[in-house]
Write a structure and sequence with these properties.
With 117 residues, the protein is an all-beta fold. 0% of the residues lie in helices and 54% in strands. The chain has no helices and eleven strands. The strands form two sheets. Strands 2, 4, 5, 6, 9, 10 and 11 form a seven-stranded mixed sheet that branches. It starts with a strand and ends with a strand. The model has no long low-confidence stretch (mean pLDDT 94).
């Protein structure tokens, strides 16, 4: 059973930055796509950004230009750097890894990001 542990959430002022980390219990080379999703109160979970095992990123329009996603394969860690934060970025952020071969999906427990205006 793969475990994902997120960290780095917290309270940030609008315009500030935050870096989220997601540590996997096994090598992230096992997965084809890794990503960050978020869920605000009363809303559905939505994509923030994903990155393939080949390093190709994909960003939601709402964070394009403000976010960077990457992996540190040596550490087995997925990162998300978010800049120019807005109050509407407030949500619980979840890490996800996906393996195409058997549609294996794992979610982390989530980390709260709160952006104050």
């Amino acid at each position: 059973q793969v475990e994902l542990v997120e960290s780095g959430g917290g309270l940030v002022q609008a315009g500030g930055s935050i870096r989220l980390s997601c540590a996997a219990s096994i090598s992230i080379f096992n997965f084809n796509v890794m990503g960050w999703y978020r869920q605000a109160p009363g809303k559905q979970r939505e994509l923030v950004a994903t990155v393939t095992s080949g390093g190709v990123p994909n960003y939601a329009d709402s964070v394009q230009g403000r976010c960077t996603i990457w992996t540190d394969n040596a550490e087995g860690t997925l990162y998300l750097q978010m800049n120019s934060l807005k109050p509407e970025d407030t949500a619980v952020y979840y890490c996800n890894v996906h393996r195409n071969l058997d549609a294996y999906d794992v979610w982390g427990q989530g980390t709260q990001v709160t952006v104050s205006s």
